[in-house]
Amino acid sequence: MARVHVAATPLDRGWEMAETAPGAANRASGVEAPWRPASVPGTVAGALGMTFDDTRDLDAHDYWYRKRIEAGETGDVLRFEGLATLADVWIDDEPTLQSESMFIEHSVDVRHRLRRGSEIAIRFASLAKALSEKRHRPRWRATIVAQQQLRWFRTSLLGRIPAWTPPIAPVGPYRAITVEKASPIVSANVRTRLDGSTGVVEASFVLGEHVRGVDIVVGEAQSALRVEGHVARGSVVIQHAPRWWPHTHGTPTLMPVSAMVHDTVGTQRVELGATGFRTVDVDRSDGAFTLYVNGVRVFCRGACWMPLDVLTLGATRDVLRAALERVRDAGMNMLRVSGTMLYESRDFHELCDELGILVWQDFMFANMDYPSTDERFSALVRTEANQLLDRLQLSPSLAVCCGGSEVEQQAAMMGLPESEWSNSLFRDVLPSIVKATRPDLVYVPSSPTGGPLPFHVDEGVAHYYGVGAYMRCLDDARRARVRFTSECLAFANLPRDETIEALLHEGQLPTQHPRWKSRVARDRGTSWDFDDVRDHYLQELFDVDPAALRHADLARYLELGRVATGEVMGVTMGEWRRARSTCAGAIVWFLRDLWEGAGWGVIDSRGYPKAPYYYLRRALSPLALLVTDEGLNGVSVHAVNDRGDAIAAIVSVMLYRGESAIARGEKAITLEAHGVMELKVDALIGRFTDVAYAYRFGSPSHDVTVATLTDTRGAVLARAFHFPRGLRNERASDVGVEASAQRISDRAWRVAVRTRNVAKAVAFDARGFIAEDDFFHVAPGATHEVVLTSQDATHTGPLSATVKPVNATTPTRVVCAR
Questions:
Q1: How far apart are CA 381 and CA 364, in angstroms?
Q2: Is residue 568 part of a domain?
């Protein structure tokens, strides 16, 4: 049902936790181990104060939680929003609840049981003991996990994937425990749909005793429902309803939804949340997978979302908002919640609704051969799926539901026939629940899926790692004819120096120290890891031996390594967004690191963006200018406008040799709404220039091509660069960079970076600050302004920072105005 917002008291104080051997106690009163304070919501790892260096197996023991009810903590319904994983609950030593899934919520009627002084006790039983019981063997062995019998248990693979997750399994009451007063609305089913320009909200309520009538209220519109017995049904219609859009394409307009309940005492407003009106459709013709929102083709781009705090699984609404605003600011309009992790909180989905970020939601299945014919297991899955979609009935940001991650792929790669790639859960059970509960969503049976084999990338949904893990040339992104990639571009992205220093102790250096290497992701059973992948592209882009460079100049190796993965991601996304691309979406694997190190994330575990974040931000902007090298056909400039209004603009290009412009050209254009326009640089200049340096008539005539998109008043909207010889490992003693800063608030400074010659991949070193833009190129004679914001809310002192282009030998100090 849609969540009925009632008065709820969080039971978040006074909890204790104890650890015992499996089966050592059958009641909390029988626990002989010492008790310690514990946070709820929280995890055993959090209660034990564990770090990522701990080697304890949290699945090997039983863990007990207990709490005495205090004054003001009684009510009618006791709600458990998430218990990981095998949990038994007692109230005053009386068995109350058994839970076999961390993905299922539970509500218990406690009107005559819970009083001041009552004790709630929870035992989280050893998962390792349960895994040791003999069960049927799977049809294939999933390489992602060591313990194949995890397929029988509805729990997260987080902490149980040896190759790339921290070894901390989620155990404990990781979501809230609350006590609530009974609501006059027992359950609520609310559906939103858009018929042309008319918004319709349909409601069906099961009512409590003494309710005489109920109205549904959406924004300013209100309609009385028909009441028959204890059920009320009806709808409210909104003419010319404002549409909800992903933020890249419009405004994510939301409208509050509530019910006015009339009973013998009076009228009470019951809040149900907020919703938005939109349509989501998919074109699957001719091998495509293209999403349309409100009838408009949307290039879906973003990243796979991971928990922000692996140890406690706790993230406040403010922490989530900051992370999701960084997603929005990067031009990302879709997040995928992967089947390897766990379902996210209501706060996450409400914020995605508010910020206009589409959600691709995997059900929590990954790689394994799940026991679909087991009735008990299937019943858990049905409850889990129904609860998830009921909770998200009103969410307009939810767009895609997917059976899980790499189930079809794993089976196919093991050589099984197509009939064995899937099962009834993904073919029948889950799609039927999606259709019944949220018929407006797109369902995908697995990620990836489609084509002769699910891991082929030119049909359906792909996981594309040609550029990336498989170390293919950059032009493979075009040659592969990707249609939609729900995972892509995985690299061991280097974090900033501050994060490296937080990971490594004095005298420990990246990237060969065991502490570093233990956190570099790898595929199980391979002789290489993702540091090797990064080094491959470092060598390809800069024509330098990574091992020799690392040995001779570690600082330079780290500098080039950061730029290399950023450049590869930016170039590849630009390729997929160009006018003639076959690709309709690309989701990076993944957004944020799970722990400190060179993880796959484009943001590190402390929340600091890495170099690829900034390259993606420029490539994914709703209004973007991109360049592609077309070889003998020269260089193309692609102007992209995701917005709903046409833009009158000017595209200009300049070719520079040293400080001098040797060729230029421009064209006035009208960039249509939701449009992409391709222009040839040679056509803009009006003559042959060998701008791509493809014909190789002697040395190149220029060092850099700079393309600029301006409005009719001359304001710069976007800029893009092309280097005919690539970035190259070249440095000059005097590029001519100057940088000055002006304070614009207590925590923020505006920095102006000027340069005499072209400055490549200009990077800030500003401890404790996050830059609005970083690793950017600056054209000869140009100025680039960037806002730097302190991460410390109490910091009001001066800015201490330097900037350094990758083609300069020394950094330049930022001079702060008095």
A1: 9
A2: no
CB atoms within 10 A of CB 405: 28
Q: Which of 160, 180, 200 is the last residue of a domain?
A: 180
pLDDT (tens digit, 9 = 90+) per residue, 512-530?
899 999 999 998 878 999 9
Give 794's pLDDT tier (boundaries 50, 70, 90). Answer: confident
CATH number at residue 766: 2.60.40.10
How many Cβ atoms are within 10 Å of 105's Cβ, its own excluded? 19
Average pLDDT over residues 92-97: 96
Residues 749 and 697 in one domain: no
Assign residue 122 a region (left: φ > 0; alpha: ψ between -120 and 50; beta: otherwise): beta
pLDDT reported for residue 697:
87
Is residue 1 predicted with pLDDT exceeding 60?
no
Report how many domains make up the chain.
4
In a domain, 692, yes or no: yes
Please check whether residues 76 and 118 belong to one and the same domain: yes
Same domain, 172 and 189: no
Residue 471: other Cβ atoms inside 10 A: 16
Which residue type does 76 have?
A: D
- Evaluate whether residue 156 is within a structural domain: yes
The rounded distance, in Å, linking the Cα atoms of 152 and 154 is 7
Instruction: For residue range 105-157, list pLDDT tens digits in order.
Output: 999 999 989 999 999 999 999 999 999 999 999 999 999 998 999 999 999 99
Query: Tokens 């929005």 map to which residue?
Result: 328
597 - beta bridge partners?
none
Q: What is the pLDDT of residues 700-744, one digit of tens each?
A: 999 999 999 999 999 999 999 999 999 999 999 889 999 999 999
Residue 697 within any structural domain of the chain: yes
Answer for the pair 274, 397: CB distance below 8 angstroms, yes or no: no
b/e string for 331-349 if b means 16 or more Cβ within 10 A? Answer: bbbbbbbbbbbbbbbbbbb
Assess whether 267 and 166 both reside in one domain: no
What phi and psi, each to the nearest 5 degrees, are found at residue 15?
-85, 145
Domain residue limits at 170: 8-180
Same domain, 167 and 40: yes
Spell out the residues 6+ positions from residue 27 whose beta carbon is closer than 8 angstroms to its own: 90, 93, 121
Q: What is the pTM of this model?
A: 0.97
Q: How far apart are CA 55 and CA 53, in angstroms?
A: 6
Average pLDDT over residues 622-646: 97
Is the domain of 96 the same as that of 157? yes
208 vs 601: CA distance, rounded Å: 48
- Give the number of C-alpha atoms closer than 13 A to the C-alpha of residue 360, restricted to the C-beta side: 33
pLDDT in tens, 800-809: 999 999 999 9
Helix (H), strand (E) at residue 47: helix 44-47
**161's tokens:** 């994937």
Which of 121, 149, 180 terminates a domain? The answer is 180
Residue 460 has pLDDT above 60, yes or no: yes
